[in-house]
Write a structure and sequence with these properties.
flat, lipid droplet, mainly alpha, Perilipin, PLIN3 protein, 4 helices
Length: about 110
Amino acid sequence: VNQVANLTLVSSACDIVSTAYASTKESHPYIRSLCDAAEKGVKSVTEATASCAQPVLTTLEPHVAAASEYASKGLDKLEEKLPLLQKPVEQILSDTKELVSLRVADVKDAVSS
């Protein structure tokens, strides 16, 4: 999970969502109340689940470690094949807009000639 969260694409997307969430809460008092209640509920459920799940997690720890190592190796291969994962969302959007603009210009040139 940490390795995925540290991918530039994922972390920049999380930053964008977090900023939008905070801005929305700040701008709309009714939504803020709803979000605050939801956050408290999630926190309570998380705390209750964590205490109940701890014995199970302790038992499964070797299996979780093996799965984590396997997933980490797979993610390393994915990062090699998809360098896009190391770019922030803003750069991907900018590159995509530029590519689309170039393609549209090519089509216009082809149609006009």
